[in-house]
Each structure stands twice: as structure tokens, then as C-alpha cells.
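ok, trying the design again with the full structure, not the truncated one.
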């Protein structure tokens, strides 16, 4: 039966959707006489365009499916008066429909696999309640999973259904087998996968995990203040920066803080962009009311020093803001050369270094402002933002308190509540930063992918932390990413900007074992290379 060949994924090509309609007909016309027969032997669901179909495939044959949708009205809205009276208030519901498994696969792992993928999708989408019309023939099974019956039966005498719903809480109270399913479907599975190539959260060293679990201490205690100062010294040594502040937040927060400092300049600025995160800097600037010009290129297209110098001559800006590593592609700006131009034209340089600090060498000594985070190249947990600054800053009454870099500087980075657990974890993570290992490992991975005929963006001038794979035409980055996830290799692919361009990424950030990395990369090749040859999954 080829059970080992089963994959579970979201249906996303015409052949799969045609098979969905065939299986729908077989189940809900032939087996459960809910609809009329037709010559085409196809049943297109009335919500077909709104459904997300989770399917089980044995090679090219769909052997099971289940559909998910979240747009009201649901099918049960048409069968019951005031559906909302039956379900807990404040819920974020979806409906699950069209569960079907071919006869010969009903005693295999197909049903389990469909449920696993369904739970994972619900968690990703934020739904906390799922509705079904459960066939009366399978009520025992549904109840075992954790579905709760409500209202009376619906349907006609030939096809009777029981309205039911399931919540996360009721699912967790179900049998041990399905409790295990819930655990596997939760976000925690990603941190325990065979190998994670995500740009965040990144794999962390075991010592970092232990550090995070230590007993919390007060952020006002002498020991916490001392530990924070030690980390700041380590960060300055790593980057050659003059000063640094550590805040509770993300890279988005640190860039908002940078924007507030740039707002203090009387003149306008210049922003460089050739990818998603350059575009985000533009958005930060707009939201902060900055006056600025833009030097924008296509994604991954080189922004030459000649073009930057021309823009500096033409616009005479007070400040220049750029990312260092453009995470959406891996493009690495020549920070040293850009700094040289900034000094030549007396322009203050501000850098988003969220995906470069801890990955590639950086020298921030003469850079006005630079931002990064704990949960990427530094190899710790997300939750701490880091702002490097050349000059001494003081609190400014026009800047919101949480965004006021000067206030943090005056208070030793602790004007507000801080997390001792995140600080201790970051301290431990800094011990494991190895720029030479990053470069060597990335070079090996790039060379291997090229040897296997897999197209990647850029060359060795790109960041050693991000390797962007261009999925061959006719294939889907979601298919590749889903298939890799099935075998425990987590790629970055679910961001809209990657899905829209049909890219997947290998992020070499955080703690990586070289042997495990190369083994995981080989498994990516085993998925992409054969698919590239035959043109489908």
C-alpha cells in the first residue's frame, strides 16, 4: 500500500483539486447519499473556492482529505437557527468538513496524519474552535477525539449528521493518543525538529536553554545590573561599538527607536531598499513622520556604491538608513564602503543589523545607530532588542518613553521591567558566537547546493546566515517546505514575501552542528532534485 510514501499537505495544483472533487463524489454521493449522481463523477463543494483542503497522498494518488474554512456563514448556519447560541462566546471558529479516506487506507496512519496537519493549520491561523457536522456512523470516533455534540441532528433520513464542535481544551482532554497529537502539532514541535533552518526562533545551544530556565531575579537587583553591564561590554567587543542599550522587545521596536532619534534631525534622509526589510525601514520612516528620499532597486539587485554616492550628492541628506543583511534575499550591503561615503559627505549612518550581528563581522565604532536582536545571529531566544550608538544620548521629552533611547542610556538600559531569564540566556549565547564557523559552514552548504543543480541567489558575497533557494518553475515553495517539514527539516518559506516569489530559505543562524547541518541539507536535495527532474511532487 506504500504507507511509507504518504505525504500530508495542502492541495494547491489543478490535478490535486480534480482528485479532491473525485473523492468528494465517491464519499458523499456513492457512500453517503447526500448528493445526486452525475455523469462526470465529480462533486464540487459549494464552498470549494473558500476551502483549504488538507490531503494525504500516496505518490500521485490522493487517498484522504479534509477541508477547512473560516468564512461565515458556515454550512451549519444554514441548518440551525442562531448557531452562535451553541458555541462559547469570544471564540474564533472555523469549520471542518468533507472528511474522507479511501477504504483501503482506513486502518493506516492517514486519518492520524490528516488530523495532525489540521491541528497544525488551526494553530497557525489562530482558530480556537472547529465546527463539524459529524456523520452518525462515526460519532464514537468524533467523541473520542474530543468533539462535543450540540443541538439536534440535521440532514435528511438518508444522511443524518450531528452538529459538534471541538476546542483546544476539549481536544487536550481527549485520549492519550490525541493528546500526543496536540503536543506534536503545537509550535514546540519546531524547536525539537530534526533540524531547524528558521531565521527565528533559531536553534539554541543546550547551555542557553539551561540559562533560560534559571530562577528569575529582580531587574533592580545588583546581580542583574552587573550581568546586564557584562553583556553590554561583550556586545561592544563583538561589534567595536562605543555604546549599546538592551531593551525588551523585537527588531521592530529597535527600528522604531532609531526612527525617533533620526526625527531629531532638521533635514531629510535617504533610505536604501532592495528587499522586504528595506521596505520595512521605509514604512518605519513614514509612520514616524520622517522626511526622506528613497534609493530603491528590485529585490536582490545590487545597490552600487556609485548609485549611493550619486544620491548623496543629489539630495545632501542628513542621515542614511539601510539594512546590513537583507533577510528576504541574503544580500549583504558593503557596510564599510557605505560608512566611508557617509563620512565623506558628512551623513549620519543608521543600520538595521538584525540579521548580521553574530553572523558576519561588523564594525560599528563610527556608525551613528545600529539595531539588532537576541534571537537571530546571537543565537539566543527572541525577546530582547539591542541598539548600538556612537554618541551619548539623553532623554528627550518629545519621544514616547518606551522609544526613548536616551532614557535607556541614562538608566543603564533598565528604565522599565526587564527579563533576567532572557538576559542570562543572551549572556550564555554570546560565548558561542563563531563568525569563522558561520562562514565556513555557509560556503560548504552553498557549494553543495550548486553541485546538485539547485539554484540559489547570489554568491559568497551574500550573507553566510541566509541562503535563498529559487524553487524550479512549475513547483511550489509551499510544497517543498511542507515536504521538508514532514521529515523534520524546517525551512523558512511561510512568509508571504517568500511564497509570492516561490523561494525557500536555509537560515544558518543560532547554534548548528556541522554534521547535522550537512545531513539535513542532503535531505533537502533528496526532495528538490528528484522533483526538479520529474516536475511534480
Amino acid at each position: 500500500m506504500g504507507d511509507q510514501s504518504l505525504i500530508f499537505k495542502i492541495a494547491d495544483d489543478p490535478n490535486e483539486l480534480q482528485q479532491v472533487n473525485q473523492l468528494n463524489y465517491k464519499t458523499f454521493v456513492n457512500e453517503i447519499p447526500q448528493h445526486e449522481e452525475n455523469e462526470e463523477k465529480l462533486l464540487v463543494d459549494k464552498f470549494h473556492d473558500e476551502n483549504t483542503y488538507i490531503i494525504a497522498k500516496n505518490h500521485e494518488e490522493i487517498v484522504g482529505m479534509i477541508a477547512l474554512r473560516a468564512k461565515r456563514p458556515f454550512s451549519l448556519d444554514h441548518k440551525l437557527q442562531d448557531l452562535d447560541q451553541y458555541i462559547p462566546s469570544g471564540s474564533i471558529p472555523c469549520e471542518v468538513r468533507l472528511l474522507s479516506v479511501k477504504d483501503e487506507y482506513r486502518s493506516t496512519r492517514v486519518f492520524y496524519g490528516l488530523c495532525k496537519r489540521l491541528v497544525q493549520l488551526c494553530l497557525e491561523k489562530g482558530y480556537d474552535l472547529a465546527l463539524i457536522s459529524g456523520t452518525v456512523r462515526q460519532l464514537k470516533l468524533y467523541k473520542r477525539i474530543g468533539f462535543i455534540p450540540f443541538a439536534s441532528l440535521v440532514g435528511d433520513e438518508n444522511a443524518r449528521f450531528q452538529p459538534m464542535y471541538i476546542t483546544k481544551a476539549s481536544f487536550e482532554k481527549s485520549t492519550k493518543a490525541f493528546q500526543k497529537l496536540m503536543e506534536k502539532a503545537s509550535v514546540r514541535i519546531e524547536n525539537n525538529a530534526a533540524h531547524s533552518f528558521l531565521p527565528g526562533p533559531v536553534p539554541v545551544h543546550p547551555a542557553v536553554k539551561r540559562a533560560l530556565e534559571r530562577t528569575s531575579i529582580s531587574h533592580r537587583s545588583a546581580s542583574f545590573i552587573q550581568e546586564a553591564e557584562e553583556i553590554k561590554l561583550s556586545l561592544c567587543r563583538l561589534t567595536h561599538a562605543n555604546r549599546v542599550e538592551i531593551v525588551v522587545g523585537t527588531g521592530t521596536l529597535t527600528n522604531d527607536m532609531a526612527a525617533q532619534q533620526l526625527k531629531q534631525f532638521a533635514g531629510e534622509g535617504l533610505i536604501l531598499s532592495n528587499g522586504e526589510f528595506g521596505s520595512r525601514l521605509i514604512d518605519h520612516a513614514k509612520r514616524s513622520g520622517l522626511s526622506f528620499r528613497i534609493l530603491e532597486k528590485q529585490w536582490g539587485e545590487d545597490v552600487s556604491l556609485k548609485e549611493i554616492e550619486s544620491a548623496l550628492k543629489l539630495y545632501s541628506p542628513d542621515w542614511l538608513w539601510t539594512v546590513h543583511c537583507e533577510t528576504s534575499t541574503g544580500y549583504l550591503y558593503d557596510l564599510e564602503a557605505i560608512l566611508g561615503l557617509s563620512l565623506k559627505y558628512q551623513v549620519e549612518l543608521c543600520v538595521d543589523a538584525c540579521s548580521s550581528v553574530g553572523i558576519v563581522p561588523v564594525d560599528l565604532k563610527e556608525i551613528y545607530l545600529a539595531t539588532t536582536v537576541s534571537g537571530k545571529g546571537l543565537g539566543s531566544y527572541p525577546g530582547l532588542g539591542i541598539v548600538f550608538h556612537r554618541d551619548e544620548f539623553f532623554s528627550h521629552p518629545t519621544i514616547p518613553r518606551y522609544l526613548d533611547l536616551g532614557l535607556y542610556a541614562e538608566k543603564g538600559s533598565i528604565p522599565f521591567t526587564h527579563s533576567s531569564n532572557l538576559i542570562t540566556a543572551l549572556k550564555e549565547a554570546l560565548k558561542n558566537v563563531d563568525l569563522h564557523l558561520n562562514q565556513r559552514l555557509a560556503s560548504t552548504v552553498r557549494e553543495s547546493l550548486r553541485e546538485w543543480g539547485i539554484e540559489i541567489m547570489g554568491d559568497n558575497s551574500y550573507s553566510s546566515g541566509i541562503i535563498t533557494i529559487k524553487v524550479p518553475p512549475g513547483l511550489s515553495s509551499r510544497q517543498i517546505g511542507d515536504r521538508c517539514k514532514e521529515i523534520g527539516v524546517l525551512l523558512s518559506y511561510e512568509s508571504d514575501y517568500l511564497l509570492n516569489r516561490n523561494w525557500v530559505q536555509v537560515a544558518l543562524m543560532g547554534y548548528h552542528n556541522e554534521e547535522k547541518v550537512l545531513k539535513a541539507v542532503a535531505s533537502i536535495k533528496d526532495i528538490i532534485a528528484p522533483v526538479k527532474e520529474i516536475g511534480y511532487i
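Keeping the full-length input from now on. The two ends are 18 Å apart (CA to CA).
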